[in-house]
């Protein structure tokens, strides 16, 4: 992608706020890092907001400045793709609480001139959505042609349709859920404890020193297991050993799958902030769209006039198909138009980020169906 607005532009804005958070805190100012692709139509009717997952960022379809890797959803966004900057004005913002330029634990607290650390206020998925709404107001986008997100991005898309129903024409929710299960929360807690047990964490006040890299790497390793499937791991690694002359018992990675997970953990610490991981995983755990609407999920969608498309994958055990079906049932109860498909993939939860031609066809057909 180039710096041309049509092909992607990395931006940052400081909004005066205040942004009232669910916890009652008024956050001001609000920093938001974002990227846009394409141009907003004269009638404003071609805007699509893409929401990223837990460890994602705004670099959805352009080269990541830290890793040098292509954007995390170039399979979905680009010329000739389901979301095409030649016709769509695409926006992707780094979520509140993250570490790629938006307000979060690593950003500067204006009251002290130092990074917030654990003094940053607790945030929710709905707070992320409200911050995104502030950004859209700044960009002059009153209404969205569509909102699209996978995993935590799907949570944001669901929250958008409930929080700002008048601003959404269509919503695509992929491999997501309307609330975390006890198992989801348990895996996140293992990761959080790994970070906080790292001596370098220093109760979150590690900025300017050594970050809790070991703890964050372990957190990433534990989470990454939930993104895969047993079939995928077996096919890719099985019980194959590392290629070396002799096995050793101890700290060396004897099995290929061990080496793979360690690589995932070590590469992650180079681009992510440990405190942000604590805050965002907690926001995901707090998310319960039904609880926000009197305990009945259908109530969340009664004011919406959007079309919905839900996609799940048969090997996703993090957010299995049953979670998507529950959302579909609630949408049906609310009288909302919804289409749903379960796709077959050996890649588990990560399938939505990988080469999935069937998913692209589903999303493309759905988005075109609203024209």
UniProtKB/TrEMBL annotation:
Enzyme class label: transferase
Entry keyword Cytoplasm: yes
Keyword Cytoplasm: yes
Enzyme Commission number(s) of this protein: 2.3.1.31
Location relative to the cell: Cytoplasm
Domain (AB hydrolase-1) ranges: 46-355
GO molecular function: homoserine O-acetyltransferase activity
Biological-process GO terms, alphabetical: homoserine metabolic process; methionine biosynthetic process
Pathway terms, separated by semicolons: Amino-acid biosynthesis; L-methionine biosynthesis via de novo pathway; O-acetyl-L-homoserine from L-homoserine: step 1/1
Keywords linked to the UniProt accession: Acyltransferase, Amino-acid biosynthesis, Cytoplasm, Methionine biosynthesis, Transferase
Catalyzed chemical reaction(s): L-homoserine + acetyl-CoA = O-acetyl-L-homoserine + CoA
Annotated substrate binding sites: 220, 350
Residues the record marks as active site: 151, 316, 349
One GO location term (cellular component): cytoplasm
Quaternary structure note: Homodimer.
Similarity comment: Belongs to the AB hydrolase superfamily. MetX family.
The protein's role, per its UniProt record: Transfers an acetyl group from acetyl-CoA to L-homoserine, forming acetyl-L-homoserine.
Name of the protein described by the UniProt record: Homoserine O-acetyltransferase
Organism: Sphingomonas taxi
């Amino acid at each position: 992608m180039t710096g041309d607005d049509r092909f992607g532009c990395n931006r940052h804005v400081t909004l005066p706020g205040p942004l009232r958070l669910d916890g009652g805190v008024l956050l001001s100012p609000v920093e938001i890092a974002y990227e846009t692709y394409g141009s907003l139509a004269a009638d404003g009717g071609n805007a699509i907001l893409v929401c990223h997952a837990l460890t994602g960022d705004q670099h959805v379809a352009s080269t990541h400045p830290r890793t040098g890797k292509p954007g995390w959803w170039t399979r979905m966004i680009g010329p000739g793709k389901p979301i095409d900057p030649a016709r769509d004005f695409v926006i992707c913002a780094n979520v509140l609480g993250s570490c790629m330029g938006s307000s979060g634990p690593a950003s500067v607290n204006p009251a002290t001139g130092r990074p917030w650390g654990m003094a940053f206020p607790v945030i929710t998925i709905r707070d992320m959505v409200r911050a995104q709404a502030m950004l859209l107001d700044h960009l002059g986008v009153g209404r969205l042609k569509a909102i699209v997100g996978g995993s935590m991005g799907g949570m944001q898309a669901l929250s958008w349709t409930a929080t700002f129903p008048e601003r959404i024409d269509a919503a695509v929710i992929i491999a997501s859920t309307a609330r975390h299960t006890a198992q989801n929360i348990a895996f996140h807690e293992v990761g959080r404890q790994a970070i906080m047990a790292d001596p370098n964490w220093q109760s979150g006040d590690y900025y300017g020193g050594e970050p809790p890299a070991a703890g964050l790497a372990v957190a990433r390793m534990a989470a990454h297991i939930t993104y895969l499937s047993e079939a995928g791991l077996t096919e890719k690694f099985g019980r194959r050993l590392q290629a070396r002359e002799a096995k050793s018992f101890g700290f060396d990675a004897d099995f290929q799958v061990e080496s793979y997970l360690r690589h995932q953990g070590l590469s992650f610490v180079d681009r992510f902030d440990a405190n942000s991981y604590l805050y965002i995983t907690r926001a995901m755990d707090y998310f319960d769209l039904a609880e926000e609407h009197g305990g009945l999920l259908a109530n969340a969608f009664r004011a919406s006039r959007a079309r919905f498309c839900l996609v799940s994958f048969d090997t996703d055990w993090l957010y299995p198909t049953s979670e998507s079906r529950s959302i579909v049932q609630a949408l049906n109860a609310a009288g909302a138009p919804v289409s749903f498909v379960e796709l077959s993939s050996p890649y588990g939860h990560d399938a939505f980020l990988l080469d999935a031609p069937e998913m692209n066809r589903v999303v493309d057909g759905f988005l075109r169906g609203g024209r």
